[in-house]
Design goal:
Elements lengths: L2 H6 L7 H41 L4 H11 L1
């Protein structure tokens, strides 16, 4: 198949309404994915900051909750 053959093919088009509706749904999902990703990295950073200190006894749980609030 070459370019000229492809250009001759008929193509079904659903219309702009359906494309716009899909774009709205897809955009909503992309925004949620981004928000979840940002939250994941924030939680991972908080874990990496607090876990070693908790395990070594450098800080106690009450102090960790305060530090976690400051980080977030």
């Amino acid at each position: 198949m070459n370019r000229n053959n492809v250009y001759r093919l008929e193509l079904a088009w659903c219309g702009n309404g359906i494309v716009d509706a899909f774009d709205l749904v897809a955009t909503t999902h992309r925004e949620k994915i981004k928000a979840n990703s940002d939250e994941f990295y924030t939680l991972a950073a908080t874990r990496d900051l607090l876990l070693p200190k908790l395990m070594s006894g450098e800080i106690r749980l009450k102090d960790a909750e305060k530090i976690a609030g400051e980080v977030a």
